[in-house]
Task: structure prediction
Amino acid sequence: MPHSNPRKYLAAAAVGALSLGLVACSGSGGGGGGVDADGKATVVWSTWGTPEELTRYEEFNKDFMKRHPDIKVKLQPVAGYGDYHSKLLAQLTSNTAPDVFYVGDDMIGQFVDSKRLMPLTELMESDASKTKPDDFFPGLFGAAEKGGEIYAAPNDSNPDALWYDKEALKTAGITEDPATLAENGEWTTDKFLEMNQKLHDAGLTGSMYWNYWATHWSWLSSQGVDAPYDDSGEFVAHENPDAVAAVEQFGELFQNGTFVVADTLPDGAGADSVFVTHKAGFFAQGRYTIGTLTSAGVQDSYDIVHWPTPDGEPAPTGVATSFLAINGKTEVKDAAFTFWTEFLSAEGQKFRLQGGGNAVPSIKGADEVVLEDDYPAHAQTFLDMRDIGFEDYPAEARVPGLPVAVSEEFQKLYEGKADAQQTLDAIAALVEDRSEK
Result:
């Protein structure tokens, strides 16, 4: 996602649809650009986004066209994330798709397998490229890379850091600062759970998480458990006693109310509201949380820390991204790639993310935008988490509907309707069944 994770974005889709109603109609026709009689190319590109994001994209378009008077760029926004991909797949099938387009990380595998995307590795390595493959952080490609070929690249990224509220911690009688503990190598799972217990005992929520891949697989990784999928793409977590034990521990914390599934909170008392009113200690989210806190005028009470680990040393955790791809049948290949590579370049990401941007660059050379305002105090944590983090496992992300189905099994665990072994066994059966279709 450009600014959040799929779960949070879908929760806001109805609001976004209303906000974008006036501009979304421009994306209703579909179709790529072409070359006019004067030899000027038109590149049509599409994405979802908030009004603020779309404004920034239009500013980028204007800046790009000033530098490339021979290329015209048209943005076709689509209102809702939930409708975006089905429409785009239909356009690709009917050869009416835009030249360049965003793809969510929960859908990129399906788009790669559709064989409708332009292979990009050779272009990225060419003299025309401002985005060499090695310029990106390797853990962010996920299912956008297949068989040694790159079919899309991450626009930017959002590591799911643990935001924490100093005021809530103080209310619970907690005097230690998580980020300070992390700097000293003392941010352990035991310390984290001790703080959560104190928060719970004080009548507050310990930690809030969105129910999607970056939550459950980050918990396993942070606790030193091997990946749930092996190198061949087979799901193996259900056969790993350490994985079962870690998932059981995680599930029990939701079942006793210490942890809360953010997706399930009621309208009017959602996770953001709980967090800005100092009723929860920790919230796993990306850099976009800055906007929530500053809008509420409470930003001084908050900071971030990486996920706790048994030994206190940082471990790889989930990084949400969205991707930019090129239509394999575009009629303006050179112009489309010029736009694509400049949009994703270090300069392009700085342009899009500076001044309160809501994501973390996915490419080397643009990190200054994360540190520019010295907020949060430990903003470097975002960069450190991105550097070692991972996108959703390709074996899961490539199978239509599988990430959502996996989350549904975890929801049963969180509600006490299944134990860890039952949950992982059910996921193993899902993976086997859906991967064969």
Observations:
- The two ends are 27 Å apart (CA to CA).
- The chain has two domains: 6-158+321-388, 161-317+399-435.
- The CA atoms of residues 162 and 284 lie 5 Å apart.
- Residues 1-29 have pLDDT under 50 and may be disordered.
